């Protein structure tokens, strides 16, 4: 049975779109629409942003202790309603329920609690006389209204990454989730409304045009987006017209550099776990393997075996490691890469969509690829692990850095010195050593080059949502 249509959440309550336009929301595990969501227009965007601007006048003056307490209570409520949120998230994304409950809810709650603490920990230069008879001090202030756009791969967690630092710093938010995955973000806003004043956290749903209206509107002082390079480029271009601050996290093509001294079985297991999680729909996914000459063949065979033993399935498949791709366009994209595998490469496992309902794709391994192949250069965003064989450390570094992205990377070796050299030379915002994909709230997440700029999580991410003001007072006689 279809659910009642979703509604925007503005000024502490659910609201209908002004134009009455809706689009289908699909369960990717079945390919069937189960509800609808508003396609918000310019009037809806304007209303939400004006509400947020009004709320900012008082929320910015809340003490750090007051903001921290609201965040703690919000986190506790999310934890208490974890099963309900998971059901909504899984229905909207097609992800296995058990995996979502165990792997996504706990870090989301922890991240909210981290930012609750961060609200009381902002620091700056101590006040002092840097000029005779003048005392200087630094004020760190909230920026204002933040326009935020989140993607469909982790709709709930990415919403937390956006609103956590923004609200804790004293900003107000209008957030637009992906048009394919709006449900859990709306539920988060409903839960938050019990602890934050009306208008502090608003959610409007819609398509790319909705996002454009949000970005170009004169009210937001900051725009933050997690999405594709194309989307980030458009946002940066539009924000430039009004000199808005921009925060971009745009994707990746993480190199996984495996040297000959690595343990084949353990490394293959670690790579598969970090490559196939969330169907490879992760900007940091361990899907671009660079293997040393002495280990490449054995590692490829071990990865193929890992692929064949990885279980896929929808919401209620208890032992599934990942679920469907998010939408038919993404399924077509991943399938297209496999249709165009070059003659010099080999598909060692998988390579096909899984027949039946939904958008499932087999765990896949492709070896024999060259540096200029599209599967190496372009983000596939699916459960496809590629393997290249490098000759030495210099070539490994050159190939690892030889893409337009710079988000995350990993090195697998028993040689500590080599690991440290690689960590220095890899041009990526994160370098894991003998592991791949763990993220903690205390450490920053964000990349270089076409992966964007700005940091999520950590105090670095928190500082991105504040502005610095110098105050100087004459103290002479």
Spatially, the strands of the biggest sheet line up as: 14-15-16-13-12-18-19
Structural class: alpha/beta
Sheet with the most strands, sense and barrel status: 7 strands, mixed
Average pLDDT, rounded to a whole number, is 97
Work out the oligomeric state of the chains in this entry: single chain
Give the helix level as a range of percent: 25-40%
Q: What fraction of residues sit in β-strands?
A: 15-25%
Structure, explained:
This protein has 477 residues and is α/β, with parallel strands linked by helices. Helix content is 38%, strand content 21%. The protein has 16 helices and 22 strands. The chain has helices spanning 42-59, 64-80, 82-93, 97-103, 105-118, 155-168, 183-192, 208-216, 229-240, 264-276, 296-309, 328-339, 374-377, 393-401, 416-425, 458-464; strands spanning 8-10, 13-15, 22-27, 32-38, 128-131, 134-142, 145-149, 172-176, 201-203, 222-226, 245-249, 255-258, 288-291, 346-349, 364-367, 384-389, 405-406, 408-412, 430-433, 448-449, 452-453, 466-474. The strands form 6 sheets. It has a 7-stranded mixed β-sheet, sandwiched between helices. A 6-stranded mixed β-sheet has the order 9-8-7-10-11-21, with helices on both faces. Strand 5 and strand 6 (134-142) form a beta hairpin. The longest helix has 18 residues, at 42-59. The radius of gyration is 23 Å and the shape is globular. The termini are far apart.
Topology:
Elements: E1 8-10, E2 13-15, E3 22-27, E4 32-38, H1 42-59, H2 64-80, H3 82-93, H4 97-103, H5 105-118, E5 128-131, E6 134-142, E7 145-149, H6 155-168, E8 172-176, H7 183-192, E9 201-203, H8 208-216, E10 222-226, H9 229-240, E11 245-249, E12 255-258, H10 264-276, E13 288-291, H11 296-309, H12 328-339, E14 346-349, E15 364-367, H13 374-377, E16 384-389, H14 393-401, E17 405-406, E18 408-412, H15 416-425, E19 430-433, E20 448-449, E21 452-453, H16 458-464, E22 466-474
Parallel strand pairs: 7-8, 7-10, 8-9, 10-11, 12-13, 12-18, 13-16, 15-16, 18-19
Antiparallel strand pairs: 1-2, 3-4, 5-6, 6-22, 11-21, 14-15, 17-20
Helix pairs in contact: 2-5, 3-7, 5-6, 6-16, 10-11
């Amino acid at each position: 049975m279809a659910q009642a249509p979703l509604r925007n959440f503005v000024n502490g309550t659910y609201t209908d779109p002004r134009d009455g336009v809706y689009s289908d929301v699909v369960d990717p595990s079945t390919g069937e629409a189960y509800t609808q969501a508003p396609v918000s227009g310019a009037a809806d965007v304007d209303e939400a942003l004006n509400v947020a601007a009004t709320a900012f006048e008082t929320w910015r003056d809340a003490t750090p202790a007051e903001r921290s307490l609201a965040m703690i209570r919000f986190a506790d409520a999310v934890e208490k309603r974890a099963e309900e949120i998971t059901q909504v998230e899984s229905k909207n994304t097609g992800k296995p329920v058990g995996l979502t409950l165990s792997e996504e809810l706990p870090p989301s709650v922890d991240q909210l609690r981290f930012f609750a603490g961060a609200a009381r920990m902002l620091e700056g230069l101590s006040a002092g006389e840097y000029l005779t008879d003048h005392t200087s001090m630094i004020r760190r202030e909230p920026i204002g209204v933040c326009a935020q756009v989140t993607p469909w791969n982790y709709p709930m967690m990415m919403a937390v990454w956006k609103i956590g630092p923004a609200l804790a710093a004293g900003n107000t938010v209008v957030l637009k989730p992906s048009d394919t995955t709006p449900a859990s973000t709306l539920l988060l806003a409903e839960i938050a409304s019990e602890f934050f004043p009306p208008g502090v956290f608003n959610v409007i749903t819609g398509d790319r045009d909705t996002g454009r209206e949000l970005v170009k509107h004169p009210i937001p002082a900051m725009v933050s987006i997690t999405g594709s390079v194309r989307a980030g480029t458009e946002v940066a271009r539009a924000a430039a017209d009004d000199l808005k601050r921009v925060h971009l996290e745009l994707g990746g093509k993480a190199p996984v550099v495996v040297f000959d001294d690595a343990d084949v079985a353990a490394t293959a297991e670690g790579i598969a776990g970090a490559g196939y999680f969330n169907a490879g729909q992760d900007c940091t996914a361990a899907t671009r393997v660079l293997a040393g000459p002495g280990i490449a063949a054995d590692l490829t065979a071990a990865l193929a075996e890992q692929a064949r033993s990885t279980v896929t399935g929808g919401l209620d498949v208890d032992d599934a490691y990942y679920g469907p791709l998010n939408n038919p366009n993404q399924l077509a994209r991943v399938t297209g890469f496999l249709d165009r595998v070059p003659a010099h490469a080999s598909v060692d496992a998988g390579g096909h969509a899984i027949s039946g309902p939904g958008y499932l794709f087999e765990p896949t391994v492709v070896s024999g690829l060259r540096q200029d192949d599209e599967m190496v250069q372009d983000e596939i965003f699916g459960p496809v692990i590629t393997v290249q064989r490098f000759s030495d450390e210099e070539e490994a570094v050159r190939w690892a850095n030889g893409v337009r992205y710079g988000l995350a990377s990993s090195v697998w070796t028993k040689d500590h010195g080599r690991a440290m050299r690689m960590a220095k030379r890899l041009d990526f915002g994160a370098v894991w050593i003998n592991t791949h994909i763990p993220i903690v709230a205390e450490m920053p997440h964000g990349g270089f080059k076409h992966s964007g700029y700005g940091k999520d999580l950590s105090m670095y991410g928190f500082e991105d949502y504040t502005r610095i003001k110098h105050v100087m007072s004459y103290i002479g006689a």
